[in-house]
Every structure is written in structure tokens, then in C-alpha cells.
């Protein structure tokens, strides 16, 4: 199956569809390809900054497969699969650390365990994961922000105790909805009482930042039921709340149910419904003391700072460990092969667990000067605080209006861009409506080559 088109064919005659592509990383993994010949990590990292790296570990296991999820994960881990996975992750850590060398000190500015569901691992396995990050990679987990994703059922007291003790500063709980019928409709059945009990355990563990993920646009969700979930989340006064629009993507549980495709009119209606829920959610959180950080992210205005974090995602390098983790140097983004369908995911995980040689990057995409500009602009502009023009100019020697005149004029014409008084300084910021349409804005800045690669990607 081919990935969906990135732009609405009717673009130009009416406003673009608001929910096209969530740009959490650019270029997207579907634009990665096998690297031939596969470069040695030691060569790739020569000359790269290593004073403020980010460390990410990917744990590709979940107890259920949520209907909306297109992440690289599988249900369950038969036999000793989690042990074999951690064995491979340790071998990879050793190889990567060796490739970084000792010529210059290596320092991690932050760390994250994501998935999948990292807390699918048992308490002892989580301790081992922290050991790998500390002993093999040299990350000082207790001194830097450490974020971990969890599901309600796996956020058990013993696991949370290990994570808190090892320095976790942020625990993100994927709740999605406090309404049981909606959770079932999203193919993530869970009882509200179990969710509330998990939230109580997270608070008891004393991890400083609690994030709650909620989803809008679920079948059967109304303004009233959405408000119920928002209020149930607010009752915990979480330091962060993420509001995600529901997407139905190829090869996911909901995608398979919808095969046959809804007519255009139904999709337009669903877009409108999601925009309404977004605005209701945003306004409700703003009225309850939260600040908007991006289209999805809201932070409690009086939440304590998370400690030192001098990692700048636009520029600094990332080391990813695990079969779905990305790594970034200034010129190459790389990972392993990627899949969403169950049997492909299982075989890729199996292949990872038997890999002995982790000394090369095997799958990825080169990031040249043009792509680096696009990435910098996307990762700044889609944040509420916007893009400091001087930073962009300092890094690239030209301004965003020099590099993206047509795209920025289109945004301004739609009322989505608050232009700075001075185009050589100040900040480029999205308006409130611009932020609401972040998922329509992002694809406009993809390069033709990345678009073509994403369109040609065969989902598997
Ligand atoms: S949404 Fe989270 S818990 Fe659900 S299947 Fe995806 S990774 Fe697992």
C-alpha cells in the first residue's frame, strides 16, 4: 500500500485539510532508505559536537495494540524476548559509545525512554535499561531530565519506584480518554478506575512532572464527553497535558476497519469535529492555568522547571538505541528499517535481537543544508514561542524570508502567521489559528525530495 498523499488535491480552491501530517521529526522515517554502502558510526561522528547530546531508548512492546497507533511496537514479548532485546540494546550501546571515541568528552543533556511502552519491562529490566544508559553510554541520569512513557496498566508501584530512584523527571501516561466507551472505540479498552489508580501511583512515586495524553476525534465523543476527560485529567493537576487529534492511518487497527475509505464529505465533517474539540480543549486548558507550548502540548503555568536542559532539538545530535530509535548527526539521520504491520514489526525486532555488529548506520537519510533549514524552521515555527529570526540567520547566513518567501506568504495570506515588525529580527510566530492548523502547515515545508520519498514509501 502506498502512503497517503501529503496535500489535499483541492488545495488552492479551499483551505487545506487541517489534519495531514504530525511533524514531530523531519525528515519523517518513511523518507529513510537503506544506506549503501553503510557508513561506519565512527566516521559519522567524527567532528560532531558531543557536549549536549540527547539519548533515546526505544522499547517496542505493549500489552495491547491501540487502534490508532502506528508506532513501531508489538503486542507482548513471548519467552525471554525482553531479555534478548536488552542484550542487543546493550551490544548496540557498547558499539555506539566506542564509535563516539574518547577524543572529546561525551555529555548527554537529556534522556528519554519511549516505545512502545517502556514500562512493559519489569522493574528489574528497567533498572538494567538505566544501567545501560549510565554505564555504557555515560549518561548521568540523575543529573539530567529523563522522560519515560507508560500505560496505566504497566505503571505499577515497583516499576515507578525504580524509575523515580534512577532520576526520572517526567512520566507520560497514555490515558487517551477517561470515558470507557471512547477507550473501547479507540481500541484501547480500559476501566476508568484503573486509570485513576495508575495516576495515583505516579503521584505517590514523586516523579516531578506528570504528563497526561488525551485524544479527540474518537467515534462517539461529544463536547460533553470531551469535557469530562479534560476535567478528569485536570483533577490531577498534571504539569503537562498533550491533546492529540485522532488520526486513522494505514495498517493500524482503526485503519483496517476503515478500509474502503470514508467519502470526502464525511472526512470534512470529521475535520470540523476535530477542530471544534481542539478549540474547546485548548480554551478549557488555557482557562485553567495552562500555557500552550505547541498545537498538542500544554504546560501548567506554575509547574516547577524540569532542571537543566540545554539540548536544542534544532541543532544538537541524538543517539538512539533500540530497533526503532533514530540517531541524528548534523548530516545524516539514521535508524533501522521501519514497519507498522504486526508481522513485519515482529520480524524486525527478531532481526535486531540477533544483530552482533552495530558499528554501522544501515538505514537513513542525508540532511544537507537545504533540509537542515527546513528542519530548523519546522521545529521552531510549530512551537507557540515561534522562530527567533536572528538564531536562524546566525546559523544559516540567510533569513527565513530569503529561503521560504512563497511558503511564508501563503501562511500570512491565510491569517496563520503573525509576522514580525522587522524581518531581520524578532520572532516568526503562528497565530492561534495557525497553531490549530500545525498539521497542515508542516507538510508545506517538506522538500520535493522528501515528499517524493514519503509518497513512494510502501507501508508494511
Ligand atoms: S499508543 Fe502507546 S500503548 Fe498504544 S499501542 Fe501505541 S505505543 Fe502501545
UniProtKB/TrEMBL annotation:
It comes from the Bacteria. Signal peptide: none annotated. PROSITE patterns: RADICAL_SAM. GO terms for biological process: porphyrin-containing compound biosynthetic process. One of its GO terms (molecular function) is 4 iron, 4 sulfur cluster binding. GO terms for cellular component: cytoplasm. Residues 47-291 form the Radical SAM core domain. Pfam families: Radical_SAM. Coiled coil: none annotated. This is Heme chaperone HemW. The lineage of its organism: Bacteria, Bacillati, Actinomycetota, Actinomycetes, Kitasatosporales.
Amino acid at each position: 500500500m502506498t502512503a497517503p498523499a501529503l496535500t489535499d488535491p483541492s488545495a488552492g480552491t479551499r483551505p487545506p485539510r487541517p489534519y495531514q501530517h504530525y511533524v514531530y521529526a523531519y525528515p519523517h522515517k518513511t523518507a529513510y532508505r537503506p544506506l549503501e554502502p553503510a557508513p561506519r558510526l565512527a566516521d559519522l561522528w567524527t567532528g560532531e559536537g558531543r557536549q549536549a547530546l540527547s539519548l533515546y531508548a526505544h522499547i517496542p512492546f505493549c500489552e495491547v495494540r491501540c487502534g490508532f497507533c502506528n508506532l513501531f511496537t508489538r503486542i507482548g514479548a513471548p519467552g525471554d524476548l525482553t531479555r534478548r532485546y536488552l542484550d542487543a540494546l546493550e551490544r548496540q550501546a557498547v558499539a555506539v559509545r566506542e564509535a563516539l571515541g574518547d577524543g572529546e568528552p561525551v555529555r548527554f543533556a537529556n534522556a528519554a525512554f519511549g516505545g512502545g511502552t517502556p514500562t512493559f519491562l519489569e522493574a528489574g529490566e528497567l533498572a538494567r535499561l538505566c544501567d545501560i544508559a549510565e554505564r555504557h553510554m555515560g549518561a548521568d541520569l540523575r543529573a539530567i531530565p529523563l522522560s519515560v512513557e507508560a500505560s496505566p496498566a504497566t505503571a505499577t508501584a515497583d516499576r515507578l519506584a525504580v524509575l523515580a530512584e534512577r532520576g526520572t523527571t517526567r512520566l507520560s501516561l497514555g490515558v487517551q480518554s477517561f470515558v470507557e466507551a471512547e477507550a473501547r472505540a479507540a481500541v484501547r479498552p480500559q476501566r476508568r478506575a484503573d486509570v485513576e489508580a495508575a495516576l495515583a501511583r505516579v503521584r505517590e512515586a514523586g516523579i516531578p512532572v506528570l504528563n497526561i495524553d488525551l485524544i479527540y476525534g474518537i467515534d462517539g465523543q461529544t463536547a460533553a464527553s470531551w469535557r469530562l476527560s479534560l476535567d478528569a485529567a485536570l483533577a490531577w493537576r498534571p504539569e503537562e497535558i498533550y491533546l492529540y487529534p485522532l488520526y486513522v492511518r494505514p495498517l493500524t487497527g482503526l485503519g483496517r476497519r476503515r478500509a474502503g475509505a470514508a467519502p470526502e464529505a464525511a472526512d470534512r465533517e470529521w475535520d470540523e469535529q476535530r477542530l471544534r474539540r481542539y478549540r474547546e480543549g485548548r480554551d478549557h486548558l488555557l482557562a485553567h492555568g495552562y500555557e500552550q507550548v505547541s498545537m498538542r502540548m500544554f504546560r501548567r503555568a506554575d509547574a516547577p522547571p524540569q532542571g537543566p536542559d540545554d539540548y536544542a532539538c534544532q541543532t544538537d545530535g541524538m543517539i538512539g538505541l533500540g530497533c526503532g530509535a533514530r540517531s541524528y548527526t548534523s548530516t545524516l539521520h539514521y535508524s533501522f528499517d521501519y514497519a507498522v504491520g504486526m508481522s513485519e514489526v515482529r520480524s524486525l525486532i527478531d532481526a535486531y535481537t540477533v544483530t552482533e555488529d552495530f558499528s554501522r548506520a544501515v538505514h537513513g537519510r542525508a540532511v544537507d543544508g537545504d533540509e537542515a533549514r527546513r528542519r530548523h524552521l519546522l521545529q521552531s515555527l510549530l512551537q507557540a514561542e515561534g522562530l527567533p529570526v536572528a538564531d536562524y540567520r546566525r546559523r544559516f547566513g540567510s533569513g527565513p524570508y530569503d529561503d521560504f518567501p512563497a511558503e511564508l506568504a501563503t501562511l500570512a495570506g491565510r491569517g496563520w502567521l503573525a509576522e514580525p515588525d522587522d524581518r531581520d529580527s524578532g520572532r516568526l510566530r503562528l497565530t492561534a489559528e495557525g497553531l490549530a492548523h500545525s498539521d497542515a502547515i508542516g507538510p508545506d515545508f517538506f522538500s520535493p525530495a522528501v515528499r517524493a520519498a514519503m509518497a513512494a514509501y510502501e507501508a508494511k
